[in-house]
Amino acid sequence: MTITVLIAEDEALVRAGCVMLLEATADIEVVGEVGDGAAAVERTGSLRPDVVLMDLRMPVMDGIAATRAITEISDPPAVLVLTTFNEDTAVQQALSAGASGFLLKHAAPADLAQAIRHCAAGQGWLDPAVIGGVLTALRRTGPRAHTAPAALAELTNREREVLTMMALGHSNAEISKQLFISEATTRTHVSHIITKTGARDRTRAVVLAYQSGLMN
C-alpha cells in the first residue's frame, strides 16, 4: 500500500530535498507541497494524506497551530514534525497540539522514509536525538486533572509495565530484552495499549502515560 504525504515546509530547498528523497521510495507518494501552515491545513482537507510532514517555523500560520488544526479534523492524518536541536519548547507545544512524531532536519536521509512509515502505521516516531527533550517536557508538564487515571484502567499489569517503559523512551527491542519476551509479543502489547487507551498512536500513548499520572 502506498503512503501519501503532504509536505509543509517554507524553505524551498529543504522541501525539494524531501521530495527528491521520497520520490525514490516505492511505497511513499508526495501528493502535495505547501509553504505555510494555513495552506497545510487547507490542502490536508482536500488531499487527505496519510502523513503531513510539518515544519514548525512557517509564515501565515506556524506549524504548531497548523498541527492543532489538522489533528482536530475527522479521521486526521499523522503529523510528523521537522525540528532542530534548539526547539525543545516548540517540540513540547507540537506534542500538546497532537503531533505523532519528531524528526531532526539533519537526520540521516533513510530516517525520513522510516519515520513516515512508522507514523502512517500508528507507531509514531521520536528521533533519538529529541527523545530526551520530549520526555523532559512531559515530566515538567505533569498530570492533567481532566485526564483521568481511568484511561488506563483496562490495561493489564504487563501492559502497564510496557507502557511505562515506552514512556521512558525504550524501543520495542529494548523492552523485549528487559522483560524477556519476544519483539512480536511486545508489538502485540503496544497495539493493545493503543487500542485500550484510545490513543491514536505510540506517541500519544506515551503522552497519556504522563498526563494520567502513571509516571509519577
Automatic annotation (TrEMBL):
Record domain HTH luxR-type: where: 148-213
InterPro entries: CheY-like_superfamily, NreC/VraR/RcsB-like_REC, Sig_transdc_resp-reg_C-effctor, Sig_transdc_resp-reg_receiver, Tscrpt_reg_LuxR_C, WalR-like
Response regulatory domain location: 4-120
Superkingdom of this protein's organism: Bacteria
Modified residues (4-aspartylphosphate): D55
GO molecular function: DNA binding
One of the protein's GO biological processes: regulation of DNA-templated transcription
Keywords of this entry: DNA-binding, Phosphoprotein, Transcription, Transcription regulation
PROSITE patterns: HTH_LUXR_2 (PS50043), RESPONSE_REGULATORY (PS50110)
CDD domains linked: LuxR_C_like, REC_NarL-like
One Pfam entry name: Response_reg
Full protein name: Response regulator transcription factor
Lineage, opening ranks: Bacteria, Bacillati, Actinomycetota, Actinomycetes, Mycobacteriales
